[in-house]
Amino acid sequence: MDREKPPKYLWWHKKAGRLWWLMLLIIGIAVIVIFGDFLWWMIINTSEEDVSIKVIYAVAIVVFTGLLLILAWYQANEIRFQAEKISKTSRTDLLLRIDREYGSPKIIEARIILHEFHCQVFDKKITSNNRNQMIGDLINDMRNKEKQAKKFMYLHNFLDFLETVAYFCKKKDISEDDVRELIGPLRGYYTMFEKLISSLRREVGPRELYKEIEDFANKKNKH
Hints:
By secondary structure, the chain is mainly α. 83% of the residues lie in helices and 0% in strands.
């Protein structure tokens, strides 16, 4: 599953509502100040006969401006509604893509391997965290065994998938609840792959390798 940057309109929609309300507030204050000052100027610089007519003109202008502000407010709400609709559609599309990838043949192969490991180490007396660590030992032992290469690559591909999901979660394109319902707890998967991640960092990669899923798991541990 390719990791993509969130569409630009998602960033825009988060800011649009605040900018529109701020603009409307500034325009409203400006209208009140300008026309109030203009009305006062007309009163003190116009003969009594013309005051009433010019006051009517000024009030008419203020009313017209108010109608424009109302129209602008309506357009702002409409734009915000459409942006939220687009955002919801994009989020739904992303969740569907994650769900499809989680059910792809390569990921299913990895899940079968993990379940086999789970059956090997299962013991009711062992906590789920310790069981995941034991599975992690089995995964890490595979990395330099030629006969285990195919299974190892399935697991490595699954780890890449989890890293991508953690990235989207960090960017808040999807929620942690969404992830938990689609693929289960990322923290449990991280525990399974933690030793492999450490080994890969020592042997082939920088410290930042698989940083997204590590940060996600550590953040959950702090709560």
